[in-house]
Specification:
It is a single chain. The protein is built from 19 helices and 20 strands. The protein is of the alpha+beta class. It has 3 domains: 152 residues, Periplasmic binding protein-like II (D-Maltodextrin-Binding Protein, domain 2); 107 residues, Dipeptide-binding Protein, Domain 1 (Dipeptide-binding Protein, domain 1), CATH 3.90.76; 221 residues, Dipeptide-binding Protein, domain 3 (Roll), CATH 3.10.105.10. Strand 8 and strand 9 form a beta hairpin. Helix 17 packs antiparallel against helix 18. The N terminus is likely disordered.
Length: 527
């Protein structure tokens, strides 16, 4: 009798419209909506830099980086080293790809070899890898050309590809088939509508860690921060995301006190913005010239007006506080008298009375200052730096570049004079660690340094595994950064991550991936 009454009530409610199957489905679906200004244009995980960031949603790695920069097992259950660190053996856990096929050691070995051969950036990330091979279905061996103490950190950006999808793809940077999104990660790619700026992922029901607590992730792509923040204030998005940064600090004040908005604030273990010299081009290869420029810069203004006070004046040693072997080096400061004195001594003076300093041979001197247009703070900062350098008679021509063009100029062509760019937390730890990958001309090398003193420290650090000896080398590294100023950190800042506390809780800020790490997917609560 009770059962028939319950059925009758349900039927009446359905007829009256108080419950519809469609509304009930929407209510039960746990959807997480993220606003972003990352300019995603295609679903190529290699040539589209920002869609490539999201491959962590779709594709796991052998190891991952957790709080404090610690290495955690992911697809690798365990590992060991042999031959004094030249050979690494990884035991794999059981996992499957989104299309149901089993992930094996063949997929891992294929991924390592394929990326080194076919995708340019991995020639740096995997620079010391000679080969990878499957020992059996769940064991993979990676052989290095020499011991690499920091190998696991560099391996943390290698997402495992399904061999059966990629083995016949000769040009991975042109592969935009949806098969390119097949991985074994917590989410499955569903759709990308470029015209509406909507990117959708569904939870992987068969993920080896269990199904995430979010059924559906929707990224809404905005063309500017203002429109994105208005959507956040209105509750149209639950939070925002941009790789290795939070919200533009300059607009945080406009959000403070807004109803239902909360913030995660963490120290940035990357350098928010730095001025990079091409140390193999004159006069940027002259230490005193770099030092002269360092004394012309308004660090306190950058921290106040670019980072809205969520920052501090940095030290010359480049590496920010928070790193295990951080060393206190001298604080950077502005002193125009020092700048002018050094430039005059080097022979950079105004030969013809036009107000601009010339080369020592009196030919006209002008510096190109490249910066990334996809990061708003860099664009504003470029104007400040141009002003500061022109105040001491150094003529500057701004060179705005989108991210692909920037990476072409700095990573490969090396045609820049000066450049403004951040370092990410992962980037600080790549190669031998402590920003070496950004300095060393043999790696990514934005500073393009071939100074033998630096390279000897880096080579020693690549091989050294004893912690006490590593600390000594890392202290020496920061000393040489401070002495030579191959690059100048412009401020050390904080990451400010806003979210709608009335709609979501349990977000975890991963030091590498921000809020889109696995920690969030298993702690998040959609309200």
């Amino acid at each position: 009798m009770k059962k028939s009454i319950l059925i009758s009530i349900t039927v009446v409610c359905l007829l009256a419209g108080c419950i519809s199957p469609e509304n009930e489905s929407k209510k039960l679906e746990r959807m997480f909506t993220i606003g972003t200004t990352m300019p995603i244009k295609s679903i190529n995980i290699f040539s589209d830099y920002y869609f490539g960031i999201l491959r962590d949603l779709m594709m796991d790695r052998l190891v991952s980086i957790g709080e404090g920069g610690t290495i955690h097992p992911e697809l690798a259950e365990s590992w060991e080293t042999k031959e004094n660190g030249k050979t690494w053996i990884f035991k794999l856990r059981r996992a499957s790809f989104h299309d149901g096929k089993t992930l094996t050691a063949e997929d891992v070995a294929f991924t390592i070899n394929y990326l080194r051969e076919k995708v340019p950036e991995y020639r740096s990330h995997l620079a010391l890898v000679e080969k990878a091979e499957a020992v059996d279905e769940r064991t993979v061996k990676i052989v290095l050309s020499k011991p690499w103490s920091n190998f696991l950190w560099n391996l943390a950006v290698v997402n495992i590809l399904p061999k059966h999808v990629w083995e016949n793809v000769e040009k991975p940077l042109e592969f935009v088939d949806t098969k390119a999104t097949i991985g074994n990660g917590p989410f499955v790619f569903e759709s990308f509508d470029k015209s509406s700026g909507l990117l959708v992922f569904r939870a992987n029901e068969n993920y080896w860690k269990g199904k995430p607590k979010v059924d559906k992730i929707v990224f809404r792509i905005f063309t500017n921060d203002q429109a994105m923040l208005m959507a956040l204030i209105k509750g149209e998005v639950d939070t925002i995301y941009f790789y290795a940064r939070g919200i533009d600090p300059a607009i945080v004040s406009g959000l403070l006190g807004k109803e239902n908005l909360s913030f995660i604030v963490v120290d940035n273990l990357g350098v928010d913005n730095a001025l990079w010299f091409n140390c193999q081009r004159y006069p940027f290869d002259v230490k005193d010239f770099r030092i002269a420029i360092s004394y012309a810069l308004s660090y306190e203004e950058y921290a106040k007006y670019i980072a809205a006070g969520y920052a501090e004046v940095p030290n010359a040693g480049f590496v920010p506080k928070g790193w295990k072997f951080y060393k206190e080096t001298r604080k950077l400061e502005k002193n125009l008298s020092v700048t002018n004195e050094i430039l005059e001594k080097l022979g950079f003076r105004d030969c013809n009375g036009d107000g601009w300093r010339d080369y020592p041979d009196c030919t006209a001197f002008e510096m190109k200052l490249a910066y990334r247009t996809d990061i708003v703070e860099s664009s504003r900062l470029a104007e400040f730096i141009k002003r500061d350098l022109e105040n001491v008679g150094l003529k500057v021509r701004l060179q705005p570049l989108d991210n692909p063009s920037f990476r072409q100029v700095l990573d490969r062509d090396k045609t820049h004079d000066l450049a403004i760019s951040r370092t990410t937390m992962w980037g600080m730890g790549m190669w031998a660690g402590y920003a070496t990958g950004y300095f060393d001309a043999r790696n990514i090398g934005w500073a393009n340094v071939a100074d033998q003193r630096l390279l000897e420290i880096i080579d020693a650090l690549l091989n050294e595994t004893v912690e006490e000896k590593r600390r000594e080398l890392i202290y020496k590294l920061q000393d040489i950064y401070a002495e030579e100023l191959y690059a100048i950190p412009l401020y050390w800042g904080k990451i400010v991550q806003p979210y709608r506390s009335d709609k979501v809780s349990g977000l975890v800020y991963n030091p590498m991936m921000g809020i889109i790490g696995d920690e969030t997917w298993f702690k998040i609560l959609i309200k």
